[in-house]
């Protein structure tokens, strides 16, 4: 991509589903995004369009400032804000509405797996999950009902990035809950091993997306 997307294209990208990257726009807008390498058209019906990894990077990047003589577009209303899986350690929503959001996000991710896998399988992570390891692992855990840690790390899981490629660390103070997290991630298509911290002797999981 040699130049940034237009304002209209940026709005289409920003409005993409936060988990699956599914796009909604006019045929001309979607075709232009495909030509720029920011989207792809799924070969199977209903031939929906999805963000490519480059499109996800554009979506997550801060938009460039508008020239002084260009009026800013009016803000678009958002229903409940943008969904984000809880990785642990942050304050977050709870209750039935949050459970519905998490369930919907997980079902959307399974659909993305089905549509982007050559054999339509949903038992292994897709490209989006490999590009967003922490969020993908956290979504799998939260969707299975595991409680994410709040500000007190003793009350749930925490998912963190690691220096290893395609691997995240999962911490849980309770040993039984840590093993339950491992089972959940394996069922979600992740390879999981249990390790001991060299200095703290605390147990943690190292998880990476399974390829086959």
From TrEMBL:
Biased composition (Pro residues): 65-77
Region (Disordered): 41-100
Low complexity composition-biased segments: 78-87
Protein name listed in UniProt: Uncharacterized protein
Species of the source: Streptomyces zinciresistens K42
Upper taxonomic lineage: Bacteria, Bacillati, Actinomycetota, Actinomycetes, Kitasatosporales
């Amino acid at each position: 991509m040699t130049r940034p997307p237009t304002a209209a294209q940026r709005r289409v990208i920003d409005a993409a589903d936060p988990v699956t990257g599914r796009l909604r726009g006019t045929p001309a807008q979607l075709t232009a995004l495909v030509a720029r390498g920011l989207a792809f058209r799924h070969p199977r019906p209903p031939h929906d369009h999805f963000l490519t990894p480059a499109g996800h990077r554009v979506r997550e990047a801060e938009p460039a400032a508008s020239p002084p003589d260009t009026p800013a577009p009016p803000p678009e209303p958002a229903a409940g804000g943008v969904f984000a899986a809880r990785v642990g350690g942050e304050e977050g929503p709870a209750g039935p509405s949050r459970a519905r959001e998490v369930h919907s996000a997980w079902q959307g991710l399974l659909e993305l797996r089905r549509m982007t896998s050559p054999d339509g399988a949903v038992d292994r992570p897709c490209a989006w999950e490999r590009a967003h390891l922490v969020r993908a692992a956290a979504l799998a855990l939260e969707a299975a009902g595991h409680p994410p840690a709040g500000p007190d790390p003793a009350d749930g899981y925490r998912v963190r990035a690691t220096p290893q490629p395609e691997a995240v660390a999962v911490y849980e103070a309770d040993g039984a809950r840590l093993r339950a997290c491992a089972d959940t991630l394996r069922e979600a298509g992740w390879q999981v091993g249990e390790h001991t911290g060299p200095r703290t002797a605390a147990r943690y999981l190292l998880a990476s997306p399974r390829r086959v």
